[in-house]
Design goal:
alpha+beta, three-stranded mixed β-sheet, about 40% helix
């Protein structure tokens, strides 16, 4: 049922709400001006802001990529006639701009004047746009910087991010055989450098240890050009744009580039990570890099990914049990031995402790170096703190999702009741020449309301928690697909 947006007749800014039934659902890549998704008459009468959405949809049914653009009067102000547009890719970026340009502004009142959250079309949810095979609990990603047109990225001896370690300044760039694609979106930002900045968080990537923490998209985007945009692996995993993700995205140990929509197989990247680790002598760095590989390959259906994941898990197990670094990378003679390393700790400890090392170190040296109870106790305490924090974050996000879904369903039913009341009134007054058609509409509306009330009762099962709610209910009403 289509619902029209309403504006106050006196021209003032109406107050909207994310759960207001007057807010329509939006298609991917859609854009527009003014209410309900952008301010009007702010800061001056006649100033209308613009909005735009991307393709990705959250589990609660709202677009993850949401942009807000200044009205023309502010774009050409401040004595800068060359600045043709100015946009923001996050709510925090908008807040920073307003606090800087209009100090003293009531931010709460500003954001209450329009809806920041933009709901996606129901067809996207029905087609599984937000279904995930696994939903890791992660803290929020730092917001992107403001999107501002500026000089071209082609300044050869200048890093726009002012990163002294940028590969373009050190002469260590990958030097791809093809040129980078022309980009007028992220690469026009004042402080974004394609050579060293993450497209998702705008922070610089780490080139140490073979660039283990980022991936650069080398997909062909035209004749003689590649994408060339980079992203932190961690950012991509948090955004469900790397690893194994279900639904319409359908990633299997792959990376999905936000800029060009291309997919990159991450199995070769993890293979390079493993080769990098073999040359390192720091247990902490090795474990950190191997854990990234595990996150990428976990839940993959690819045979190559499963085999590589098993190798990494064996290496991590050996690392934790105190095996000498040069022995960690030795391949076991058969799969049974590899399984023993992962799942039979006592056996592995016995082998590690009582076999005389070939390099002349004694068993006592090994034990004193690898099993200090103080450091182990501190590490365990840190692990528990992280788990408890993740649990708290998970519960908060689940509550928020349930609240949004239940309120949206309640508002939908209330709107149906309003429609029924109007249709019954029309039937009583015989406003139509075909009373039978009016009666049919009323009866159909009553059936529709009963169905939606039944759906709401099913959704209320969530009161016992997501873990105790049936898979069918989670899939049907909360767009969550839970694997056995």
């Amino acid at each position: 049922m289509e619902i029209d947006n309403h504006e106050e007749s006196d021209g003032s800014t109406p107050r909207t709400n994310e759960n207001d039934v007057s807010i329509r659902r939006v298609a991917p890549d859609e854009s527009g001006e003014g209410l309900p998704f952008a301010p009007i008459n702010w800061p001056n009468p006649g100033d209308t802001w613009r909005w735009k959405v991307g393709k990705r949809v959250s589990g609660s049914g709202y677009f993850l990529d949401r942009y807000l653009y200044l009205p023309k009067s502010l774009c050409h102000g401040g004595g800068n006639p060359t600045r043709r547009k100015y946009g923001f890719a996050s709510k925090l970026a908008v807040e920073r701009y307003i606090q800087t340009s209009f100090p003293g502004t009531n931010l709460d009142a500003f954001f209450e004047s329009f809806s920041w959250k933009i709901p996606a079309e129901m067809s996207l949810l029905a087609n599984g746009a937000v279904k995930l095979k696994h939903v890791p609990v992660v803290p929020p990603i730092p917001p992107c910087a403001e999107i501002e047109e500026s000089d071209s990225q082609s300044d050869a001896l200048c890093c726009k991010a002012r990163n002294k370690l940028c590969i373009s300044l050190l002469g260590e760039a990958e030097n791809p055989p093809l040129a980078f694609m022309k980009c007028d979106i992220c690469c026009t930002e004042a402080k974004f450098c394609r050579d060293c900045c993450c497209i998702l968080c705008s922070k610089t990537v780490n080139f140490s240890y073979g660039g283990y923490d980022y991936i650069r998209c080398e997909a062909m985007t035209g004749e003689g050009t590649i994408c060339g945009h980079a992203a932190h692996i961690d950012c991509a995993l948090r955004c469900y744009m790397a690893g194994t993700v279900g639904g319409s995205i359908g990633l299997d140990s792959e990376y999905y580039c936000r800029r060009c929509d291309a997919r990159t197989d991450l199995v070769p990247h993890v293979t390079r990570l493993l080769q990098t680790c073999e040359s390192l002598d720091s247990r902490d760095n090795i474990e950190k890099i191997l854990n990234i590989g595990i996150c990428i390959l976990r839940s993959s259906e690819k045979t190559s990914a499963k085999e590589l994941l098993k190798r990494i898990e064996v290496a991590v197990a050996k690392l934790k049990y105190g095996t000498y670094l040069e022995d960690i990378w030795k391949q076991e003679g058969n799969s049974a031995n590899s399984t023993d390393v992962c799942h039979h700790q006592s056996t592995d400890m016995e082998v590690t402790t009582y076999q005389e090392p070939s390099n002349g170190k004694t068993c006592s040296d090994l034990m004193s170096a690898s099993f200090d109870y103080r450091s182990e106790s501190q590490r365990l305490a840190e692990d528990i703190d992280q788990v408890l924090h993740a649990l708290k974050t998970s519960q908060e996000s689940e509550f928020k999702m349930a609240e949004e879904k239940l309120l949206a369903q309640k508002n939908y039913i209330c709107n149906l009741y309003q429609q029924l009341e109007k249709e019954k009134s029309d039937l009583a007054r015989r406003t139509s020449t075909d009373p039978d058609a009016l009666l049919s509409i009323v009866l159909s509306r009553v059936k529709q309301i009963k169905r939606e009330v039944t759906n709401l009762k099913e959704m209320e099962e969530i009161a016992s928690g997501f873990g105790k709610t049936s898979r069918a209910t989670l899939k049907k009403h909360f767009n969550l697909e839970i694997e056995e």
